[in-house]
Write a structure and sequence with these properties.
- It contains 8 helices and 11 strands.
- The protein is α+β, with helices and mostly antiparallel strands.
- The chain has 2 domains: 131 residues, Jelly Rolls; 77 residues, Winged helix-like DNA-binding domain superfamily/Winged helix DNA-binding domain (Arc Repressor Mutant, subunit A, Orthogonal Bundle), CATH 1.10.10.
- The strands form 3 sheets. Strands 1-8-3-6 form a 4-stranded antiparallel sheet. It has a 4-stranded antiparallel sheet with strand order 2-7-4-5.
- Strand 10 and strand 11 form a beta hairpin.
- It is globular, with a radius of gyration of 19 Å.
């Protein structure tokens, strides 16, 4: 079972009274996954959804040639796999642990039963799904309309906002996988990172990146300026 004292820290369950948290705890099943372990596969029936308790989880698609395209990375407190669950359909992508991870699994039928009796839980779910929709809309916009430096700058600013840090972020996937997420190749990603560092926009330290000039990064992300 999921630890009861962990539930109030999960945004999806914010503001719920203790009685409802106990109900959620009673239906949640804690699952542990080793790094690289499969959580679910594309096409598998969506019988429930997950909330990350610790570690990180990637959602990804595979091309017919086996090339991996990461769609999203989720960390502690974030739900995943919830949309197909409520549609009563199959998972449209794969999920795997990026590192040793723990997640709480909520069976669909039991969770829907709780929602019917707890409208506040339904409202929290709608809020989470709305934020998720905005994130994916921004991703589509970045890939379709921005040049590669703009996509990279936008992603760094997104990580800063998501991780709650003003001037330092930590990449949540290896750089070769990040390149795929942003629609480029690792060599181009490294070259642009180096150019941003030379221009004084960022400072590189492995997966940690210090944002030295967020105003310039925002101009790049918005297409106001170009990285020359």
């Amino acid at each position: 079972m999921a630890a009861n004292n962990s539930l109030p820290t999960i945004p999806l369950f914010n503001g719920l009274p203790d009685e409802q948290l106990r109900d959620l705890n009673s239906i949640g099943v804690e699952k542990r996954f080793k790094r690289g372990g499969t959580i679910f596969s594309e096409g598998q029936p969506a019988l429930g959804f997950y909330v990350v308790l610790s570690g990180r989880v990637k959602i990804f698609k595979l091309s017919p040639e086996g090339k991996e395209q990461i769609l999203h990375v989720f960390g502690p407190g974030e739900p995943f796999g919830e949309v197909p669950v409520f549609e009563g359909k199959r998972f449209p992508a794969h999920a795997a642990a990026l590192e040793d991870s723990t997640a709480c699994f909520y069976p669909r039928d039991a969770f829907v039963g709780l929602i019917k009796s707890n409208p506040s839980l339904a409202l929290n779910m709608l809020a989470v799904l709305s934020r998720r929709l905005r994130t994916f809309a921004a991703l589509v916009d970045n890939l379709a309309l921005k040049e590669v430096p703009g996509r990279i700058a936008a992603h760094l600013l997104y990580l800063s906002d998501r991780q709650g840090t003003a001037n330092q972020v930590e990449l949540d996937v290896p750089k070769n996988q990040l390149a795929g997420m942003l629609g480029t190749i690792p060599e181009t990603l490294s070259r642009i990172f180096a150019k941003m560092a030379t221009r004084g926009f960022i400072q590189l330290d492995g997966p940690r990146i210090t944002l030295l000039d967020t105003a310039e990064l925002r101009d790049l992300a918005d297409g106001v300026k170009r990285l020359t």
